[in-house]
Design a protein that fits this description.
Blueprint (H helix, E strand, L loop, with lengths): L1 E6 L5 H8 L6 E5 L7 H9 L6 E5 L1 H10 L5 E5 L2 H9 L6 E6 L7 E4 L2 E3 L1 H12 L3 E4 L8 E2 H6 L3
Length: 157
């Protein structure tokens, strides 16, 4: 199992209690060019990871190599933006779905759902992911009903 989740809060209770534990995730990879350069931030996120779950904090380029090494395990890859998820797939990450779990409001973003606000670059990335055959859904928890982000962008109910 391989889950690619977009969440600008990265590691927090919803990820750990709502996803990692119920799905028996064995490895969590935080993939971020910015966060991976900050040893203090990586260590702080590591503190939130339950015992028994491997954790790595890497940049986007290093992520695919790490995923290949851990491929036999249940993986959750977390990025902070749809744009970063798109970069991972362009670099060769093999996933069929991108889950957007939470992207907060910023000036210049468009509300897609009450927990998903996308920048123009993120919207372009969603469109390209769709063109690549990748499903883009909004989903806060594994048992939450999925939201079709592409349809919401197109204004289709």
């Amino acid at each position: 199992m391989r889950i690619l989740r977009v969440d600008d809060r990265y590691i927090h209770g919803q990820v750990v209690a709502g996803w990692a534990r119920p799905l028996r995730i064995e490895v969590i990879i935080l993939a971020s060019d910015k966060i991976s350069k900050d040893e203090w931030a990586c260590n702080a996120y590591k503190l939130a990871i339950p015992e028994g779950i491997e954790f790595s904090c890497v940049n986007i380029e290093q992520c695919n190599a790490l995923v290949t090494k851990k491929d036999k395990k249940k993986l959750m890859i977390i990025v902070g933006s749809v744009h970063e998820a798109h970069e991972l797939l362009l670099a060769g990450l093999d996933v069929k779905e991108v889950n957007i779990g939470g992207v907060c409001y910023e000036e210049g973003t468009r509300e897609i759902a009450n927990y998903i606000y996308l920048t123009p670059d993120d919207i372009k990335s969603v469109v390209h992911l769709y063109e690549m055959g990748v499903k883009v859904t909004g989903k806060q928890l594994p048992n939450s009903p999925p939201v079709n982000v592409v349809k919401l962008l197109a204004g289709v109910k």
